[in-house]
Amino acid sequence: MADRVAWVFGFAREPAIQDVAQSLDIHPFMLSRWRKEARDGIIVTKGIKLNVNEVCELRRLRQLEKEHA
What we know:
Blueprint: H1 2-10, H2 17-24, H3 28-39, H4 52-67
Helix pairs in contact: 1-3, 2-3
């Protein structure tokens, strides 16, 4: 299940792979691997809805991190 959620976030419009991986507490390589597996049809992603609120939160968090870096 986590791999499916990670895959959906990985293809979200704005968040970078590093941001998504960090928010899910996984290594960026693992997220990239799951994305590849989804493209290859190994991971089925049909029916997974992207939570817009979580994507917005990731964007806001990334912006705050940039401002305070």
